[in-house]
Structures are given as C-alpha cells and as structure tokens.
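Quick look at the format.
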Amino acid sequence: MSILLTSGSKVIVQGFTGSEGTFHATQMIEYGTKVVGGVTPGKGGQTHLGLPVFNTVREAAQATGADTTVIFVPPAYAADSIIEAAEAGIRLIVTITEGIPVADMVRVKRLLKDFNTVLIGPNCPGVITPGEAKVGIMPGFIHKQGRVGVISRSGTLTYEAVDQLTKLGLGQSTCVGIGGDPVIGSTSLDILRMMMEDKGTDAVVMIGEIGGVMETDVAYWVKEHGVKPVIGFIAGQTAPKGRRMGHAGAIIGGKHDTAEAKMKIMAECGIHVVESPADIGATVARVLHK
C-alpha cells in the first residue's frame, strides 16, 4: 500500500511548459506516473510533451479528472497557484518552488483549512511511491518498492537514506519530502500518522533538522500512540545558535531547537536515534531484523 500517491493518481503540472516543469514532467512520465496534462496561463489549447495544456487548473481538472498537481511556478505566483489548485478540487498539491515569501504561505495555510486537500512543500523534493508513481524531483532509480516509509525535511538526505535502504534490500512504501521552509503544508507528524495507519508500512525513517518543534511533536506522539518502529536523524548537530543553516526553517531559536535537545527527547520517547546519516540504513535493518 501507499499514502497520498498511487499508480492510479492523475497528475497535472502547473508551470508545465517552463524549463523546470518540462524536464521534471518528462522524468515523471518516464517513471510511469500518470501525467494527464498541464497548466500554463495563456497557452491553453496547445500540446506539450504530447499532452494537453490548459489555462487554469479548473479547466485541467474538469477535462482530465486530475486529482494531483505538482507546482513549478515562480515564487511570486506560487501561493496563488496553490490556492487555485485547492479551489479546483485537487486532492494532493505538491509544491516544489522554493523562495515563496513566508507571508504568502501563512495566507495559504489559513485558506487551505477550508479545503479537503493535502499540501506537501513548498521547497521540497516531492512524493514518491516506488514502483508506482513519483511527483517531484527525486531520482526515481534509487528507490525500491517495499515497506519502509521515509519522511524528511531535507531533499539530499532523503536521497542518501533511500540509497542506503535500497542497497540493503529494504524497499520503501512512500517517501515524502516535506520541505525545509518555516511554513509548510504538512508536518512530519501529519505524514507519520498516515504511515502509522498504512498497512504496507512496517517502519518509518524520519529525517529532521534543527529549528522548530516538529520532531519533538513526533516524539511525544510516538510515545503515546506509536505502533511501529521509528528511526530518527537530526541534521545540523554542529550548527551554532542563531545562525540559519541551509533551510530557512533550520535556525536554532532556543535550547529546545538544538539537535542535541531533539535527539534526547526522541530517544526518551522510544525513537531509534541515529547520530550519523551514514548509519540510517544499517539502523533500520537492525531494528527490523531483531
């Protein structure tokens, strides 16, 4: 099984005819994702990559039955693109765009409360259900179908963890890059809950970062409600207090935001904490084969 994305998901691409949209749509199609069209305002009626182009998401959804979208729209227009997709009834919105103003995302979060949709991102690699479909920019070839869920704030560390798992023969059920911005659509806990309920997921890898409380929220929830093993890693263990490291959301605001504090709480709550990213795969293998 999987969460969020299946081989039956019908995907459109917002920013379809741009260079990024074109490149990654091609990759998604080659992976087997059911891409059914795209949206570029002013280019409706044209054909791109052999698929129809529409002026609006509503037109695309009505014509194709699309339930999923991936957004490659410039930062200044991305928030409106997310809202447009939600208003058109899209169930899953994956926003790859980075650099969206925080104020725009605060507005988006507030408005999305009125819609039955899941937002992943922004500033994320996307979602992949190995062997079925991928919506995003991750390299499909490193993934293997299996039963380990992966949640990550970091794109590159997602790829590192997945590569380790695959080389150890441990396939993945679903991998979700939630994004590294201060305001994102779905938190680690949102995705973890889905994976805990997924009958096709036996264990979950959570890759977190310094800054914010997402990982501690997960830890406390796992302590009370966890029914599957969780393996956790926190990036930024050597980051100095008050300095942003890579992602806009990765900034230590206080003693509880540090990697050390998060790792301590996670361990106390029963999460299998990994100190080095090089040990993620081996730790998952050890936990699953006890």
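Next, a different chain entirely:
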Amino acid sequence: MLDELSELESRAELRHLETVSGIDLSSNDYLGLATFPRIKQAILEGVSRAPRIASTGSRLLSGHDDAWTLLEHDFAKWVGAEAALYFTSGYAANIGLLSAVLQPEDIVFSDSANHASLIDGIRLAKCRRVIFPHLD
C-alpha cells in the first residue's frame, strides 16, 4: 500500500484533507449557503429550541419529531403539492423514491452518466434497465 501511495504522490494524484479557501466549485454547496451568516444564525436558534439535536434512527421507528411534519406541510403548501417528504440528501431521495415507485416489470432508460443515486435507485428497484450513451 505504501508503494501505491508513493506512486500516486509521484504523479501528483495523492489527495489530502484540506480546508478549502476561496470560491468552492467542487461541493454540493452550489449557492454558498453553508457560510451564509443568516442561515448559520437560524440553525443555531433552531438547535437551541429543538428537543433533541441528533438522529435517533429511522423516523419511522424512533426518530420522528413534529418539526418534520410541520416542515413537510409548509413545503408542500409552498409548492402547491398535496404532500411532501423530507430526505436527508438528494442521494437518499433518489434511492428512496425510485426503489419505492419502480416495479420489477418496469423498464427504465438511463443515461450512462447519471448520478450514482439514480443508478442505485434503479438497481434497487430490480427493474429492467436500458443504459444509453451519455446525451444520446
């Protein structure tokens, strides 16, 4: 393993954990909200009022709080939907939605460059997949 690490380093391909400075165009923080002062303050206030601040497991089994019901209700109303369901990430949303909605007898046509969350959600649904070349 040390030889492999040395080889990566010789090709300037060895990565290190570092604090990013400047504009970060490589993260999921597309709008730069992770450092936005008003959002940071709102999070601190929300955490200080919350009855618990850590995940207790699946919401279905032990982790539900009325705050989630209120959030989902307010979001659904805002977008004009009958209901909404909050997921912890886009990855979790794609896996959850696709594996729940797709059936084994369904056929899904999928771009070869789709995000891993779409690929995994389709795979978990055990439906027929037709993968086509990116942008074809």
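The radius of gyration is 21 Å.

See the schema section for token definitions.
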